[in-house]
Amino acid sequence: MTAVDESFAVAAEVVELEQTVAALQRNGFMAELLADAQEARARIRELVPQGAAVLTAASETLRLSGIYDDINTSGRYDAVVPRVHAMDQAAQADVIRRLRGTPDVAVGSVAAVTQTGTIVVASATSSQIPAYAGGARCVIWIVGAQKVVPDLATALRRVETYAYPLEDARARAAYGRPTAINRLLIVNGEPFPGRSTVLLLREAIGY
Question: What is the third-level CATH fold of 6-201?
């Protein structure tokens, strides 16, 4: 088991968060600095149209904030995850792939955000990667203050020494098997205005 580098659990200072929001905006992202997860929860209700097909990526941030349940159990949206869970995973694999890959909106979190405005996503199965990278019409990421790092090298180190071992422990407890860093998505900018939104929080949440 990889040791957990607890230095990556510390929330960034407000000035660092503000600098990160400004950098994200310069890189084409819609970016907002919010107080906490509950404020993000309310903002999601404003940003996501009722009836939209919404994919929620596996995320402790979404689970802990209540956003995961808001989307998947409220009846307000055409939630992708419940639809996929009700399908035959083998016989309907192609349908599932298309549903996950091209929702109207993808909502999730990330492993790290740099102060220069780069986003890093790590995945074992890549189930959220197609939607994040371009398949979804819109993407919304909710990001805790502890995920802000100075640069890409530090972001990758955060993935390996903090997010990965914590997710590995969760996966072993929940599924009886380890996880892996099989895919990394690095998003340096958003060329399509209004497509990608980062809700950066002043509080630490998730990992």
Answer: Rossmann fold (3.40.50)
- Token pair, residue 94, equals 């192609």
Structure token digits, residue 176: 């009886």
This prediction's pTM: 0.96
* Residues whose CB is less than 8 angstroms from the CB of residue 128 and which lie 6 or more positions away in sequence, other chains included: 55, 57, 58, 100, 106, 108, 121
Backbone dihedral region of 184: left (phi > 0), alpha (psi from -120 to 50 degrees) or beta?
beta
pLDDT tens readout for residues 138-183 = 999 999 999 999 999 999 999 999 999 999 999 999 999 999 999 9
Q: What is the pLDDT of residues 178-194, one digit of tens each?
A: 999 999 999 999 999 99
Instruction: Please write the tens of the pLDDT for every residue from 49-65.
Output: 999 999 999 999 999 99
| Number of residues that this document lists for the chain | 207
